[in-house]
């Protein structure tokens, strides 16, 4: 499930990967790298890593001067991962500041080798003028007034920054013909990255919204380093060279699924309610326990929809499925509680019908079922128990 991965997942992932960056090159050392002749421009793309935030790979761009001791690389994926709660808030608001840092070739290659991640190199076939264009854009991006940008997982990340640099310098070579649809949706691309963590794929069904059902154009899909590498290969006719091959086992790209476990989870809340309804004892306590599940998801989904400015989080069809208002269930009398649950069941059936005819697009069947099970027990459990008695 880069805006999706999934936005909430990305926030959690970013927190978990604090400090996972190559050592930056001090600005004072820049002078030993720059040369009078135009540099050779090198695109580096990196495979996925074990941390959540590394599940979509990475990219960097390097300038290699004849007189420099080694290429100098520029990493546009740098932020303060130690901010804690403010960082989470800024991510959700689409206001997290990222910037570019210069790093030596030795440090960058060594870091990703240490992380045991694939490393590809593509030396871009540029004219001197094109190389100077990229050089100027990179150096301008180091200026204080231009250094930061607001990170967006899909539309403005470390890889799209490089895509735009290369495209502008080559007169639109990457964009030309890239308005065709990419085979995967944003959500499917995110699920491939998160496949080793199927729990997050299942959670994304709840917290990631409708925008991720869109199928990106090839241009948009270049937010992913693998797609950018392949596009540079076809558009600029430069084969990627594998500098380092991961020694560990390959990461899976297909999730083994954790959605059935999400359905099993709701049974922890629904079974006590079923027993209490059958025995006609402790029904209010069991209802409170079941409504805890419904309310918590409602608070999370509605809360994210309200506070986030990220379309992939804000426009979430699950606001029609799980609602904070379900917190009233334990406080209603028996007849009103049953009536409320019946109305909610009817509403869930209507939502399911909208999904069935294509008005709604998200994979909402797990959220719908996890809401429907306890609500159905409240609405009709007592009547069914009487008939079976």
Description:
This protein is of the alpha+beta class and 389 residues long. It contains 14 helices and 7 strands. It is elongated and about 90 Å long.
Structural class: alpha+beta
Task: Name the poorly predicted regions.
Answer: 1-20
Q: Which series of helices and strands comes N to C?
A: HEEEHEHEHEHHHHHEHHHHH
Per the principal axes of the C-alpha atoms, what is the gross shape? Answer: elongated
The separation of the N and C termini measures: 48 Å
How are the strands of the biggest sheet laid out side by side?
Answer: 6-4-3-2-1-5-7
DSSP summary: helix tally: 14
Radius of gyration: 25 Å
- Work out the number of β strands: 7
Number of individual domains: 2
Can you lay out the helices and strands and say which pair or pack?
Elements: H1 7-16, E1 40-46, E2 58-64, E3 72-78, H2 85-92, E4 97-104, H3 105-114, E5 119-123, H4 128-141, E6 148-150, H5 158-169, H6 186-193, H7 198-207, H8 218-221, H9 225-236, E7 241-244, H10 259-279, H11 283-307, H12 311-314, H13 334-356, H14 365-388
Antiparallel strand pairs: 1-2, 1-5, 2-3, 3-4, 4-6, 5-7
